[in-house]
Amino acid sequence: MISVDDALAQVLQLAPTPAAEQVPLEKALGRALLEPAISRMTQPPFPASAMDGYAIRQDEAAGALVVIGESAAGHPFTGVCRPGTAVRISTGAVVPPGYDRVVMQENVTRNGDTITMTDLSGGDNIRPAGDDFHAGDHLAPHRRLGPADLALLAAMNVPVVTVARRPRVAIVAGGDELTRPGTMPAPGQIISSNDLAIAALARQAGALPTILPLARDTGDSLRAGFEAAADADLLVTIGGASVGDHDLIGAVAAEMGLHCVFHKVAMRPGKPLLAGHIRRTPMIGLPGNPVSAIVCGLLFVEPLIHAMQGLSGVRTLSKARLGCDLGPEGNRQHYLRASLADGADLPVIHPFASQDSARLSIMAQADALLVRPAEDPARNVGDIVNFIPLPR
Ligand SMILES: Nc1nc2c(c(=O)[nH]1)N[C@H]1C(S)=C(S)[C@@H](COP(=O)(O)OP(=O)(O)OC[C@H]3O[C@@H](n4cnc5c(N)ncnc54)[C@H](O)[C@@H]3O)O[C@H]1N2
Ligand code: MOO
Question: Residue 392 above 80 pLDDT?
Fold first, then answer.
């Protein structure tokens, strides 16, 4: 068995170089920027007023001034700044050359075309040209584009960006006991849930998942599943990874040309995890127990999908204080399903009493996975521990 850290390093190495594609900004939300986006604009492009009011000259602020025109947003003042004058101005409008301060209108009394300032406290209320960014500045790649990034790119006048192509992820769940949600299970059958969870997790990570037909516990059926996944950028199988007579994934994958990089990780849940590549396509074989599949999905499939888009596959752990005493750990790194509560300095974490890797009802309630290293000694209430927040 290899450690979780070593297994993750091996999995990340399976990621091929991301393929690039160009998308318009309207379609770029959540996509991984692959090349720097270079600004075509300086923002603001001109000294801009930060307030509605009057553009004046600071050295004339004490006296009465004559309003000689207007600079509205999108309609610059075209006249000339002369001594003793002011220009009516709106927020975002060009501050006409010669004026060096904007007084907000609340601090001005106006009588016909004459204004006097009633309060001269505060700054100049002018945003200099380039205050935000300059033409030639760039938004660095290897980030997922969020709403503020899209706004920045639009403001930079970059209408199309180069992003990583979404990895196509084929998901094959196998087992004679499985049937689809909404069907009537035959005796001994249960509903397949894991493939839906892994597809959802893959989609959240930026991939385009496809759930392939359920495979049966036969070599032919599994081979058909592998063949149906031939076009995918990543193959994820679920179940059949362990040692039982019907656990055929390892053997069939080997027949299909799997170069296995590991099979079995020192973790709980998720021990029977396997990974490798078939020709150049990465493959991850998730264990069948539902919680094991989801935990391995979070720990390995999600980072691999990120890496396949040029994003960091490394996750930073969060800190919490233990809400109860815990006994010593065994020889596998343990990911305990847990709930979080507010605490004085850090959140307080309580692992659920049952850690059975078949209990989806507990996994669905959990806020976090409490991470305990292999051979961790007994811990007490209040000790600081690491956790992974779970997506909702
Ligand atoms: N003798 C041993 N038995 C087991 C070991 C072991 O080391 N020695 N490991 C256990 C661990 S740990 C796990 S995890 C499971 C993993 O087994 P498999 O990957 O072979 O998974 P299956 O046997 O196919 O299924 C296990 C369990 O999960 C249910 N399942 C499977 N697929 C789905 C699905 N798509 N949706 C919902 N539920 C699913 C399946 O019905 C079984 O109940 O092996 C232990 N055994
Ligand atoms: O690895 Mo199994 O996942 O402990 O149930």
Answer: no
Structural domains of the chain sorted by starting position, each given as residue range(s) with its CATH number in brackets = 4-18+165-308 (3.40.980.10), 30-43+135-163 (no CATH), 48-127 (2.170.190.11), 318-389 (2.40.340.10)
Q: Which ligand is nearest to the CA of 355?
A: 2
Q: How far is CA 182 from the centre of its chain?
A: 32
- What is the structure's pLDDT at 247? 84
- Please give the model's pTM, rounded to 2 decimal places: 0.94
The protein residue with its alpha carbon nearest to ligand 1, atom 41, reads 177
Q: CA–CA separation, 388 vs 322, rounded Å?
A: 14
Strand residues in 165-233 grouped as ranges (E)? 168-173, 178-179, 190-191, 208-211
Tell whether ligand 1 has an atom less than 6 A from the beta carbon of residue 268.
no
User: Does the ipTM exceed 0.90?
Assistant: yes
The reported pLDDT for the residue numbered 340 is 98
**pLDDT tens-digit series, residues 250-283:** 999 999 999 999 999 999 999 999 999 998 999 9
Would you give the DSSP letter of residue 289? S
Q: What is the pLDDT of residue 242?
A: 85
Ramachandran region of residue 367, left (φ > 0), alpha (ψ -120 to 50) or beta? alpha
To the nearest 10°, report the CA torsion of 170, 175, 181, 182.
130
Mean pLDDT of 55-68: 97
Whole-angstrom distance, CA of residue 358 vs CA of residue 372: 20
- The candidate with the shortest Cα–Cα distance to 313, out of 139, 144, 140, is 144
DSSP state of 142: S
Ligand 1 centroid – CA 289 distance (Å) = 5
Count of CB atoms situated within 10 Å of the CB of 333: 21
